[in-house]
Amino acid sequence: MTLDRDAFFIDGGWRAPATTDTLRVVSPHSEEVVATVPEGSPADVDAAVAAARRAFDEGPWPRMSPEERIEVLQVFSGLYAARLAEMADLITIEMGAPTSFSNLAQSPAPWMQIEAFLGIARSFPWEERRPGVLGPEVVVRREPIGVVAAIPPWNVPQFTTVSKVVPALLAGNTVVVKPAPETPLDTYLMAELLLEAGVPAGVVNIVAAGREVGEHLVAHPGVDKVAFTGSTAAGRRIAAVCGEQLKRVSLELGGKSAAIVLDDADLAATVEGLKFIGLMNSGQACVAQTRVLASRASYDAVVDALAEAVAGMKVGDPMDPATEIGPMVAQRQQERVEKYIALGQEEGARLVVGGNGMPDGLDRGWYVRPTVFADVDNRMRIAQEEIFGPVLSVIAYDDVDDAVRIANESDYGLAGTVWTADPEAGLDVARRVRAGTYGVNTYTMDFAAPFGGFKASGIGREFGPEGLGEYTELKSVYTDAPAM
């Protein structure tokens, strides 16, 4: 079976690209080309935006009732559920996520999002009537924004695509998706499912392309809102362009989250949790909690237990169900992580596990040895900058107040956890840490609750009613009818 593609999904069908440029999808494990797809040009983006614009301005989708849109997307959900294993395999092939993670989060979690948004949409206040102060009644409506540019990253491509496309569609918008050049394959499968579900022509359009073409999409006058997940640097540029045009924007950006280990925590359970929340998706996760904060009294025990656990993780072929750490998505990412590992040693941190060089038993692929640093000062670059790889830094604190201070001493504010035998003490810590999502003895994303960050971690929220509301405009209608 070939994974090659020769067209874009535009205006309800497969459209030939405007140029002969192609993107090579390269396996991070074998370093071999596994597929080629067209590379989008500005002309392809123009065609996709024009199709979305027509579908919004003239087509049936924004004029359907919410119930009618829910019905179509419920069909899409059923089709998606039947292809979860295929979707997970595609993502492992194109970006190297361990299949254990892909079958947990790369495809089931997007489907869970779809179902959650469908449930939220059924009870969402699309139109409500309020008693007026100056008149008898006000009708408050939530209406679609228009054409949405959805720009997901390569690390969890379907997860972040669905988090934008589904609420945008439920609200009555039309969408142009620009997948990352490393991970276009999963969006082709999604396009097939949308087409089979009966989503009208032009409502969803997909053009894979690089950064320059992505900027053309962001700045396009036919786009009314941009929804982006990616680096904080790219988010700043997108926000600047959208600000110039007064274009709606939501940004889910980077993180450098802290896990606070209190002295009464169950160390074995804590370390097992830290392995996942710190190194999920081979460390390529914005919510990865790569700063581990341990008290001076428990510091050596935490370092030793964490080092033993990380040293025992299986690194290798992402298609092997036993693999816990797969390759980095690209050679440039491998080189980036290795530079930070070298930098940590130069800064004076103590290398406990890992370090540079290929993991044992591997002679190809863009792999990095999972690494733990001790004796890290929170001012070090490895503690302040997002590495996006399997590198953990253990930082000592004096007391709980000091731990909270260190956790907050960051430009980011996306996620965090506290580990303790006292849930109420944990909740008190959670209230004090400046982060958009937080866990007590666990970390997850509940699709009924808003997800997003403080500070440089972003603008706006995804998931929950708040995430659906990000794709609506509020309209107040003043009437002289008697209040109901």
From TrEMBL:
* EC numbers, comma separated: 1.2.1.3
What reaction is this protein's catalytic activity? an aldehyde + NAD(+) + H2O = a carboxylate + NADH + 2 H(+)
Residue numbers annotated as active site: 252
List GO molecular-function terms, semicolon-separated: aldehyde dehydrogenase (NAD+) activity
Q: Give one Pfam family.
A: Aldedh
The UniProt entry's sequence similarity note says:
Belongs to the aldehyde dehydrogenase family.
**Protein name (database record):** aldehyde dehydrogenase (NAD(+))
Taxonomic lineage from the root: Bacteria, Bacillati, Actinomycetota, Actinomycetes, Propionibacteriales
